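Dear colleague,

Following up on Tuesday's group meeting, I ran the structure prediction for the two-component complex that the binding team flagged. I've pasted the input sequences exactly as they went in, so you can double-check that nothing got truncated or mislabelled along the way. The structure tokens for the whole assembly follow below. Feel free to forward this to whoever is handling the docking comparison.

Inputs:
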Amino acid sequence: MQEFTYSELAQAEDALPADAVFQMDEAAFRAFYNRTARAIWAYLAKVTGDRAAADDLMQECYYRFLRTRRAEMSEEHARQYLFRIATNLLRDQWRRNRGRLSVPLDDAEKVPTAEQTAESVQARTDLQGALRQLKPRDLELLWLAYVEGSSHAEISGVIGLKAASVRPMLFRARQKLLGILRKAGITAGRTK
Amino acid sequence: MKALQCGQERRVVESLQSGRWPEACDPELRSHVDHCAVCSDVVLVARLMREEHASMLADLKLPDAGLVWWKAQLRTRREAAELATRPIALAERFAMACGLAVLLAFVVWKWSDFYTWLGRLANFGHSDARWLLSLLLNSLNQPFSVLFVASTSLLVIFMACLVYALWAEK
């Protein structure tokens, strides 16, 4: 990457318009980040299956959000827009890594705590294995619907599907996951 | 064929989302889920995924908002600086291309002499050194040749400086 002297960076900063590129001040950004970062990171980490990739994608996600956010966006709209950016980044990541398996999340390397039993750790490992067998689109649908609690209209806005397509696709993703879980012997009672 | 939807699906998800499921939710809803294949599947999948979500976030340490903000600002400034210096970089590349084109044209124009010189170079001896010296001295007697040699030398020096400057910048 090209290196710049401090004077060149300062000149570039002077050249930026007064209302700058970010239509959000730092305090507002901090508050928004604190409300959304965990959800976005979890979404990215679960679909990529890679914590390091999720860290990088999250930074990119907020960068793009700051560069393109409109000042008149409501909180809900901004949150949905952020997830839309994240989904697009996941799509690009998947295209770049097509055919290459992602490294599983390293949670399995964590030493179980006193509260965790061997059975619950095994159940979680089985679930993670089941989720990894899903396609990224299916994982996105299920995550947005059941973890984020997004409506079908919101999901269609984030993923870029027609609203009428969300319901059948969500049904198919759910059935696919249930099939995998039943084959692995994972039931609702086993995880609690 | 299994039904794709149930009218209560959204209520079930909201109940899970708010943490009311199963103890604090509407008993009618609980009873419905017990008898509805779609809603019982939703509960199973949603509970598992939400438990996975909670496990992922346990002990998670995310970067500070200030760091994310600062990195975004730094990147914006870098991109602005790259945009500002792009015309200079293009001019440098154009100058280099022109210099190379002039050199190539000169080589093509004087190809026969170069060919002879290269042939002599292969068998360079004492007599050839004297030949080269006499050739140089004869050239210096003609003003046009002096000008040509001087400008060619300056061009070569300029290109060498340009290459060095670009390499040092990288």
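Chain A has a mean pLDDT of 80.

Cheers,
M.
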